[in-house]
Amino acid sequence: MKKLVYLDNQATTPLDPDVLSAMLPYFRDKFGNAASVHHAYGREGKEAVENSRRLLAECIKGQPRDIIFTSGATESINLAIKGVCKKYQNKGQHIVTQNTEHKAVLDTCAAMGQAGWRVTYLPVDSDGIISPQSVFAAIEKDTVLVAVMHANNEIGTIQPVAEIGAICRQKNVFFMVDASQSLGKLDIDVNEMNIDLMVATAHKIYGPKGIGFLYVRQKDPKVRLEMQMDGGGHERGFRSGTLAVPQIVGLGKAAELCLDVKYEENQRLAGLRNLMFKSIQNAHPEVVLNGSQKQRLAHNMNLCFPGLEAESLIMKMKTVACSTGSACSSANLEPSHVIK
């Protein structure tokens, strides 16, 4: 296949060579089950898992014990929303979220709606930003959870999660943040931001597919979840199943690399993005930049060309790999729910 210019990194990223190198020994010689702590092979696997847990905790300024490994962000979202709702259903049955969340959040909230929960979907402004005041007004006595993403997967808009977190803490409501697009790219402090649950995945940060994590606050306040997968009670009873040690090692290594280069990369990518947009704008003055110009991920650019059909335009760009919207909804030819 002819090498393309790859511009779809919010869908997935290639595996970093250093990440692959860190993973390979755990596919071969270091193959032990991390739960088999009675012999050296198992203890070696467990040590690697705990090292990655520590690296991820450092990335979000949390505690290692609060990191739960999963198969990816979608599983983490399901565990967080369904787990909290079922554990705290006696407190209330109301969820607050916003219209431009990833489908994994919207569909999970819809499932809770079918189970009898009320779900409030808050609108965003023309830049895709939700108003913290609207979150404050939407929280009711029976609200259990507020779910707002850190950065949008299509238009790159960065939400005011610290302000929303402060509101949730004031109102004694759990706050869940989808950080799939912001982990390793934006500063995250789960304590300063009052985040109680947070999800992320490896393949957005040059790590392997099939591995992610869920941060579950265990103190001030302690968050309890109802387990969604029965089995051996792994991950302190939150998520059963044999741990995928090679993938977990890859996730930890990818997070570590991000910590080392985050600020320099953000400056470099923002410069390239701005240069590219100005070049396109000079050639096509009618082009529209979707999302906020300032509150935006450094590497994101989402454009609208009035009068042109996106699918037709992409088909003509045979040397460029890009998308019209979320990879999780790419089979659907309907306009993106985010852009609408």
TrEMBL record:
Cofactor needs: pyridoxal 5'-phosphate
EC number of this enzyme: 2.8.1.7
Family matches, as Pfam families: Aminotran_5 (PF00266)
Keywords: Iron, Iron-sulfur, Metal-binding, Pyridoxal phosphate, Transferase
All residue ranges annotated as the Aminotransferase class V domain in the record: 5-334
GO molecular function: cysteine desulfurase activity; iron-sulfur cluster binding; metal ion binding
Enzymatic class: transferase
Similarity comment: family membership: Belongs to the class-V pyridoxal-phosphate-dependent aminotransferase family. NifS/IscS subfamily.
Protein name per UniProt: cysteine desulfurase
